[in-house]
Amino acid sequence: MTDSTGPARATTPRGLPAPPPAGTTALPPGTYRGSLVLVTGGGTGLGKAVAAEFARLGANVMIVSRRAAHLEPALEELARVSRDGGTVTAAVCDIRDPDRIAEVFDAAEAAHGRAPDVLVNNAAANFPVPAEDMSPNAWRTVVDITLNGTFYMTREFGRRHLAAGTPGSVIAVGASYAWTGGPGFAHSAAAKAGVKNLVETLAVEWGPYGIQVNDLVPGLMPHEDMTGDIRANLARGGPEGSPGEGPDHGARQPALRVGAPRELGWAATFLASPYARFISGHTLVVDGANWQRRGLVSPAVVTVREQMGRGPFREGP
């Protein structure tokens, strides 16, 4: 029988340990030397963090973004962390445009002699809105970028490797509300559910040809490129100061801390590495078990409209 009156230090919550410092690699140096890794949405936020970890391990990294303004500063930052002769290049690409995607892959092949070895589908669109307020264009835009764009990129990657008879690795950046639903994010949750299913389908279709396909789900990982909408969403339940970075947000996680973007990068470099070749069709959640959190007693229901500070719905003209 356990003595519940034992030493306080044995039961004091401490949370999960902090990650190793920035600049530390999760795999042996040079793991990706000579490989080409293409990261969509790689100019900012989590995409840039993922690109940085591949660059530290010697990869040639190509980042793409819809906005050229995001690419130049990211190129400089990634060049500083690149190791083992790896290069860092960039291309403007709207992943909703299959023709432009083909041009980007052509450019990559011309520069490196082959298609990218690894594709990280990080680019997505999202903003909080009650479903009844969502315009058809808002729905279409988020689904088109997040789901259709992911498919177009992955299709181009797969077709080139199938034609060449070469192996490859695809990683999609997903979201835990693909399972749970995402009140306030109906467009993104539906699209991410589609991405998860796409990963599972293609892993089976393309496994015989040496192409692995996996899904990577981040938890709360604050970074400087978070959109104003997301920052405002976090601030509603957080402390004064920088949204997502205060102790209040850590206290809401089972880990008692938020994640660091580099932790997502380490997970990505593992999934696409030689050490994970038998992992395919899998969704790896990197969130300190937050998506599985349940209370002993459910809290009172607060509607999405109330959480967002919106008044009663009024049907417009």
Task: Please give a structural write-up.
There is one protein chain. Helix 1 links the parallel strand 1 (36-40) and strand 2. Helix 1 packs across helix 9 (261-271) and helix 4 runs parallel beside helix 6 (186-206). The protein has helices at 45-56, 71-81, 98-112, 136-164, 177-180, 186-206, 228-235, 247-251, 261-271, 304-307; strands spanning 36-40, 60-65, 88-92, 118-121, 168-173, 211-218, 283-286. The chain is of the alpha/beta class and 317 residues long. The protein is globular.
Number of helices: 10
Report how far apart the termini are: 67 Å
Q: Proportion of β residues? A: 5-15%
**What are the segments in which pLDDT stays under 50 over at least 5 consecutive residues?**
238-247
Give the C-alpha Rg.
21 Å
Note the overall shape. Answer: globular
Averaged pLDDT = 91
User: Secondary-structure element sequence?
Assistant: EHEHEHEHEHHEHHHEH
Strand order of the largest sheet: 3-2-1-4-5-6-7
Percentage of residues in helical conformation: 25-40%
The biggest sheet amounts to: 7 strands, parallel
How many strand elements?
7
